[in-house]
Amino acid sequence: MKITKLAGSILLLIVAAFLRNGFAGDLPVGAIARIDVGEGPVNAIAYSRSTNQIAVAAANSIHIYDASRYKKQMVFTEHTNSVLSVAFSPNGKLLVSGGSDKTVRLWKTETGKLRRTREEHAAPVNTVAFSVDGKKFWSASSENDTTRSWYARDGGRWSSQISSKKYVTFIAIACSYKGATVARARAVEGTSDCTIEYRGGDHWYIKGGHIDSVNVLTLYADGRTLATGSADMTIEVWNKADTDNPLHTLTGHTGGVTAIDFSVDAKRLASGSTDKTVRLWDLTTGQATQILIGHTGEIGAVTFLEDKALAGIALAKGKAVASGDSDGTVIIWDTEKIVSVD
Q1: Which stretch of DSSP H or E encloses residue 15?
Q2: Confidence band (pLDDT; 50, 70, 90) for 318?
Q3: Does the pLDDT of residue 160 top 80, yes or no?
Q4: Cα-flanking dihedrals φ and ψ of residue 139, to 5°?
Q5: Which residue has the higher pLDDT, 97 or 123?
Q6: Confidence (pTM)
Q7: DSSP state letters, 205-255
Q8: Are 197 and 173 in contact (CB under 8 A)?
Q9: Span 32-334: which CATH code?
């Protein structure tokens, strides 16, 4: 009888470990968990500390996970084409998404109910962002260089910016932690040049040094710090204080750079690549500190599991990074347990 109970207890422990992480032997070094979404590729990941949830945009759906046990809670399926961008409101009760179906959708995360769908964009919605107070959110599309703002309460239009320029390939939006700055960055098609514009008309321009096209860009919430990732396998980090010279040119990836994210304090950068690896960079030195190996597909999304929306209240440093790949797999990495680069 004792042997039977012991065997049963061991089996329960194994099952619990599998439900949380998958079989331990299958996890890469430094990984906390692997999430097999069941759809792919993974295009975007967002995290809310308020609700401790992770949103994963994979193919046409958005999958919501409990970030404590990495258990799937619900799936949003109303997009009719690939979901490209997701963002939580500061209190975590709302999620905004943009997709290749040219729509912006607003969701209630407690129930999964779709609150609003907006169809004013004329092209895929590349990026979305919430204001610090959660009352408004922004969406942007490369077609005609369009940025739109919406009231979160009723999904109504707040304002819009539409340009006749059709050479923009990527747009990023940043809302400052203090709510004082709203900025957007845009890349010029076929070059590594970028323009950063502020609400009110101020702007700055950089002429990048990439020798191939820009694949991805991200704008830090201060509106003054920009990172661009290129098919030339490098990343350039810029600050408004010096628009002639990048702060750093980060090298080491052996494939094109496809995903980048600033840490909440802007002291680190995470990057993903077609080389199927994720790298963490120290932005005080410009050197890679960690290489995360374990994905079987090209990386499509990386994010620090830090709540940037609450950074103005508590600048909490996260200890984990999430990365998603073209196979529909998300890996959660413990940055304190990953072996550093020599």
Answers
A1: helix 2-21
A2: low
A3: no
A4: -140, 150
A5: 97
A6: 0.87
A7: EEE---SS-EEEEEE-TTSSEEEEEETTS-EEEEETTBSSS-SEEE---SS
A8: no
A9: 2.130.10.10
